[in-house]
């Protein structure tokens, strides 16, 4: 006689599968940044290395913003789990705004670098600055995936697809968002202290 899974068991199994797939994706992203970090360390012996430039203020501000966005996403997930849907929507919207502000300040950081004549390519470029641009561009590209995921979560939450018993979409999106936040904080601290 066949054992039929209950709805809860099926949801739990589905959740484990999706979380495992997300972990594989995040590990592959780690490998990309590990490669960039390794290249950065190996390149420090080059004669065109610039170690004495100051990190643009916009990148410092964006780091604070991305940390705050992780807090608001955490609060959103907890609010939805407790059944406070309007509070959850408020924190999801706050996370989206902070995510967009993070990207804006990242591009402002590029402008600050350009104004200091620190460019990624050309005769006046240096390998250290080129790595900083690579770190930021690759991170922002991955963060766009987080923004899209967050927009889907906001839409689904608006359509009342989440409740205290069904939060898989929010959990997956929050995992990825916190992961991207962690990656940026790691890159920022690495670049700030290891240049």
Protein traits:
elongated; Four Helix Bundle (Hemerythrin (Met), subunit A); 195 residues; mainly alpha
Describe this structure in words.
With 195 residues, the chain is an all-alpha fold. It has a single domain, classed as Four Helix Bundle (Hemerythrin (Met), subunit A) (Up-down Bundle). The protein contains five helices and no strands. The protein has helices at 7-43, 57-81, 85-115, 127-158, 168-194. Helix 1 (7-43) packs parallel to helix 5 (168-194). The N and C termini lie far apart (65 Å).
Could you write a compact summary of the structure shown?
With 195 residues, the chain is mostly helical. 78% of the residues lie in helices and 0% in strands. The chain has one domain (7-44, 55-194): Four Helix Bundle (Hemerythrin (Met), subunit A), CATH 1.20.120.80.
What share of residues is helical?
over 70%
End-to-end CA span: 65 Å
**What is the average of the pLDDT values?**
87
The assigned structural class equals: mainly alpha
Quick one: CATH class?
Mainly Alpha
CATH topology term? Four Helix Bundle (Hemerythrin (Met), subunit A)
| Beta-strand residue fraction | under 5%
* Sheet with the most strands, sense and barrel status: none
**CATH homology-level superfamily:** Cytochrome c oxidase, subunit III, four-helix bundle
CA-based shape? elongated
Count of spatially separate domains: 1
Rg to the nearest angstrom? 20 Å
* Tally of individual helices: 5
CATH architecture: Up-down Bundle
Order of helices and strands: HHHHH
Keywords: Cell membrane, Membrane, Transmembrane, Transmembrane helix
Membrane topology: Multi-pass membrane protein
Domain Heme-copper oxidase subunit III family profile: 1-195
Main location: membrane
């Amino acid at each position: 006689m066949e054992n039929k899974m209950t709805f809860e068991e099926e949801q739990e199994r589905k959740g484990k599968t999706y979380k495992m797939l997300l972990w594989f994706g995040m590990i592959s992203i780690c490998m990309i940044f590990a490669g960039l970090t390794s290249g950065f360390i190996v390149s420090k012996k080059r004669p065109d290395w610039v170690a004495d430039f100051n990190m643009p203020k916009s990148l410092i501000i964006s780091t604070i913003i991305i940390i705050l966005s992780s807090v608001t996403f955490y609060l959103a997930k907890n609010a939805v789990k407790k059944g406070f849907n309007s509070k959850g929507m408020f924190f999801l919207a706050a996370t989206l705004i902070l995510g967009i502000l993070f990207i804006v300040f990242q591009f402002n950081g590029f402008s600050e670098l350009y104004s200091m004549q620190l460019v990624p390519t050309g005769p006046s470029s240096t390998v250290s600055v080129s790595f900083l641009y690579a770190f930021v561009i690759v991170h922002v590209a991955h963060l766009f995936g987080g923004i899209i995921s967050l927009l889907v979560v906001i839409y689904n939450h608006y359509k009342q697809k989440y409740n205290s018993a069904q939060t898989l979409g929010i959990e997956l999106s929050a995992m990825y968002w916190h992961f991207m936040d962690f990656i940026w904080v790691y890159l920022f601290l690495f670049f700030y202290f290891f240049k």
